[in-house]
Design a protein that fits this description.
The protein folds into two domains: about 100 residues, no CATH class; about 120 residues. The protein contains one helix and 14 strands. Strands 1, 2, 3, 4, 5, 6, 7, 8, 9, 10, 11, 12, 13 and 14 form a 14-stranded antiparallel β-sheet that branches.
C-alpha cells in the first residue's frame, strides 16, 4: 500500500509539472473507457500554438501529451504506466514506463523510447499544405525505437517506410541487445505495387481516395525471424466493386523450419 500511495503521489507531481492553464485545457471524453474494473486514466495535452488567423485543420493537434494510467486486472495485478508523446509536423516522439506495483506478476519495470521522422512528398507549386491529410502521406519515414520487456530483454528496432502513389516499401531490423533472449537479429523487406482501375475520361484523380482502391495489388516480402528462419512470401489481391480475390504463396528458404511451401486462394462476393 505504501508503494501504491507513492505511485499516486508521483502521478500527481507529474500532472502538476505539466499542467496547462484552465482556460487552455481541452477535455476529451474519448480518453475514458467504461469497463468492469475501470482504470484511473488521465491525459494532459499541451497544444502547439497556431499563427494568428490560421485555420484549424484536423491533423494539427501536435504538441506534447502526458498519459498516466493505473489499473487492476482480473488476476489481481495492479499496474502503473505513464507515456509521453510529441507529434510534430514531420516527426513524432514517444516514451513510456510501466510496472506491476502489486500482485503475483510484480517484477521489473518496462520502458520504451521511440520516434519517427518523415520526408514529405513535394506538392505542385501553389498547392495547399495540410499536414496529416491522406494525399500527403507519401514520402519516406524512419522509425527507430528501443524498449525493455517484462522478462528483462532490451530490444532495439528500426523501421524504414516509403508510401508512393502506386507503390509502398518497408524494411526493418531488430535485435535483443541485452537479456536472456539475446541472439541473432531479425529483419524484413517488403512492399506493394498497385495497379489502379482506370477512371472515365476527364474524371479527377485523388490518390488514396477509397473509391480508387480497386484493382490488383502484388505484395512480395522476405524476412528472418528470431529462430533463424528466412521466409519469403508473395500475396496477390484484387478488390472489385462487388467482389474480392486473394491468393498467396510462402516458403521457408533457409533455417531449421525449411520445408514444403504454403499457399492459399480465397475471395468474397457481395450482394
Amino acid at each position: 500500500m505504501v508503494k501504491l500511495g507513492f505511485c499516486f503521489a508521483l502521478f500527481a507531481l507529474v500532472a502538476a509539472a505539466v499542467a496547462i492553464p484552465f482556460e487552455q485545457y481541452q477535455y476529451d471524453p474519448e480518453v475514458y473507457e467504461i469497463d468492469a474494473a475501470p482504470p484511473v486514466l488521465y491525459q494532459l495535452r499541451s497544444r502547439r500554438s497556431l499563427q494568428g488567423g490560421a485555420p484549424n485543420v484536423p491533423g494539427q493537434n501536435g504538441g506534447w501529451s502526458v498519459n498516466p494510467n493505473i489499473a487492476r486486472d482480473q488476476g489481481g495485478n495492479t499496474r502503473a504506466d505513464i507515456s509521453v508523446q510529441h507529434k510534430g509536423k514531420n516527426h513524432d516522439f514517444n516514451a513510456g514506463w510501466g510496472k506491476v506495483v502489486d500482485g503475483r506478476n510484480k517484477g521489473r519495470p518496462t520502458w520504451n523510447v521511440g520516434g519517427s521522422h518523415r520526408w514529405r512528398r513535394s506538392l505542385q507549386p501553389g498547392a495547399p499544405s495540410f499536414p496529416g491529410a491522406p494525399q500527403q502521406n507519401g514520402g519516406w519515414s524512419v522509425n527507430p525505437s528501443v524498449g525493455r520487456d517484462e522478462r528483462g530483454n532490451t530490444r532495439t528496432n528500426v523501421e524504414v517506410q516509403h508510401k508512393g502513389q502506386d507503390h509502398d516499401f518497408n524494411a526493418g531490423w531488430g535485435k535483443v541487445i541485452k537479456g536472456k533472449e539475446k541472439g541473432s537479429p531479425t529483419w524484413h523487406v517488403g512492399g506493394m505495387y498497385r495497379l489502379r482501375r482506370s477512371l472515365q475520361p476527364g474524371a479527377p484523380s485523388f490518390p488514396g481516395a477509397p473509391q480508387q482502391n480497386g484493382g490488383w495489388s502484388v505484395n512480395p516480402s522476405v524476412a528472418r525471424d528470431e529462430r533463424g528462419n528466412t521466409r519469403t512470401n508473395v500475396e496477390v489481391q484484387h478488390k472489385g466493386q462487388d467482389h474480392d480475390f486473394n491468393a498467396g504463396w510462402g516458403k521457408v528458404l533457409k533455417g531449421k523450419e525449411k520445408g514444403s511451401p504454403t499457399w492459399h486462394v480465397g475471395g468474397s462476393f457481395r450482394f
